[in-house]
Amino acid sequence: MIKKLLVPTDFSEQADQAFEVACQLAKRYNAQLHLIHLIEFPHTILESVTGTQRFEPPEALFFLKMAQKSFQELKSQPCAKGIEIIEMVKFNNIYQGILDYAKSESIDTIIMGSHGTSGFEELFIGSNTEKIVRHATRPVLVIKKQHIHFKVKTLVFATDLDDDNVKPLKKAFEFAEAEEATLKLVYINTPDRFETTEKITSLFETFSAKINKTINDFEIYNDLKVERGIMNYAKNLNADLIAIGTHGRKGLAHFFNGSLSEDLVNHAKRPVLTFKI
User: Fold this and answer.
1) What digits encode the pLDDT tens for the residues 62-91?
2) Global pTM?
3) 8-34 burial by CB neighbour count: b if 16+ within 10 A, else e?
4) Which of 109, 176, 240, 267 could join 152 via S-S bond, C-beta 3.0 to 4.6 A?
5) CATH tag, 4-143
6) Domain 154-276: which topology?
């Protein structure tokens, strides 16, 4: 059950869209909503003895007051009425600050906005949302546009039927049940990793036995690439949400092999929910 939601915000349009969805979910689950604003302050002085941080007072005070003003504007929105909202400003590296806060406060789900990037900008710059998806141990819900009425009726979970997808799928089922949504399990069959229907069916039978749950909606979908196949399958179903397990790959392996979950975060038009494998 979702009891604590975290929305990292830079007060951008994308972050506001995530906040609006978070408010709807907070009301639905009677959950506490945490807002965090991270400032990568250039003049931070690390105290080697205490481990605490000091800041140049005038600049720090200015950024703090600006953040508090923006927090008040968010909390005054109609969608936030009746919700317990906790706000926090941290002078820290953005994505590490989010991960640390989520752990310390036992956050159930992180909700973030993203407009996506492509090409060299995506490869060399990346986004904080990507980094959170890559490293977060909590589920991360990525919102791509405004949802005045956010309701998940159909959820697509993409899987390669490997054992490391068992735990993420169980979590996805829990979310689907809470939302009273239909979960569609899909295996994307591509030319570069083609398997026969007989082989995939055998993999599915072995995999589903480990879920301890009857899976009625399983399909094999053929496409040129896995990412494209997931998005096309979700489009054909008019699915409300794409869910996937994610590996926290780092270093050269990330750049050479890519990360499917991060690609979906960047390119999918639908919301994406990731679960750490």
Assistant:
1) 888 888 899 999 999 999 999 999 999 988
2) 0.86
3) bbebeebbbbbbbbbbbbbeebebbbb
4) 240
5) 3.40.50.620
6) Rossmann fold (3.40.50)
